[in-house]
């Protein structure tokens, strides 16, 4: 999954292949506003350490993550769903 600091895939970009417990700490991004899920399924969380509101993402391009939440949620951690 590629995460972007701004909507429409702009600003800083980082590619994730595994869980990230704090976007701010690991990537020094002030916000994550868009993403491209190339494969797999992911959970995005409002708070660091996989806490707070959770959103499910399937493969696809998400140009503005604020459109998937009903309020002004910021996403601060992500976890990849893996089969066991």
UniProtKB/TrEMBL annotation:
Signal peptide residues on this chain, from the entry's feature table: none
Question: What's an example of a GO molecular-function annotation for this chain?
Answer: structural constituent of eye lens
Please report the stretch or stretches of sequence annotated as the Beta/gamma crystallin 'Greek key' domain: 1-39, 40-82
Cite the Pfam families for this sequence.
Crystall
Q: Which GO terms describe its biological process?
A: lens development in camera-type eye; visual perception
Give the keywords, sorted.
Eye lens protein, Repeat
Q: Which domain of life is it from?
A: Eukaryota
**Family statement:** Belongs to the beta/gamma-crystallin family.
Q: What is the name of this protein?
A: Beta/gamma crystallin 'Greek key' domain-containing protein
Q: From what organism does this protein derive?
A: Perca flavescens
The organism's lineage is:
Eukaryota, Metazoa, Chordata, Craniata, Vertebrata
């Amino acid at each position: 999954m590629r995460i972007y600091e701004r909507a429409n895939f702009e600003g800083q970009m980082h590619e994730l292949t595994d869980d990230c417990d704090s976007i701010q700490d690991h990537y020094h991004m002030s916000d994550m506003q868009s993403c491209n899920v190339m494969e797999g399924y992911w959970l995005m969380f409002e708070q660091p350490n996989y806490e707070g509101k959770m959103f499910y993402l399937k493969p696809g391009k998400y140009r503005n993550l604020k459109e998937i939440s009903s309020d002004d949620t910021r996403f601060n951690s992500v976890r990849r769903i893996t089969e066991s």
